[in-house]
Amino acid sequence: MEINVAQGNVTVSQQSGSNIVIEGLASGSKEYIDGLQLKSEKQGTTAVYTAGYEKTNVTGQRYRGRTDIRVMVPEGISVTVNNDAGEVNVTGIREDVNVSIKMGTIRVADIRGNLDASASAGTIEVESAEITDHVKLSNSLGEVKFDGTLGKTNAFSTSAGTVDISVPADTCVSIHASVAAGEINSTLPVSEMSVDEPRASASGQLGTGTPTGSLTIDVSVGEINISSR
After folding, report:
1. pTM of the predicted protein model
2. Do the beta carbons of residue 55 and residue 39 sit within 8 Å?
């Protein structure tokens, strides 16, 4: 399932049964509210829902109204959400999740599957995630926070901000982490740490035991914080 929103908040959660339930609330100035709409179509095996204006004939019209969407999906449905401005909240999904936002906040909680999330400016927050194979969280301007179990391939990045990662105490992965201007902190053992101010890097192995995957973290300006729980 794919959801596209020009401006507004999107909430996605899992429910029992076999139906997809969508609720929407449109709001905006009176002269533009009638132009807001929610369209649905099928592209191959994917149901695509788009909220906003059908066409943009006036400069800025795309953002003169907003549509808040609440979606409930059955188990086994993967979710893709694209939002220009607002918030995206995804909870309880047991399939792959893909979220992108230009400006705003992404919150993902209690998921099991693969996860891809990107933001141009804002915050990415992930809690209680069980990654089955891969996770990629990237932010151009803002924080990236991840709390969960890593998969085989794990990548986190921000151009300006902090990357905070909290993982189980028995986590063991190969690591390549670098900060162009900032610092790296880890409560888990790292085989190689290097500081050449303002640069910092970590490589080799994170944790003890046999690595079960790889962890890549890139920060231009900011911090990398790795903790265990």
Report:
1. 0.90
2. no
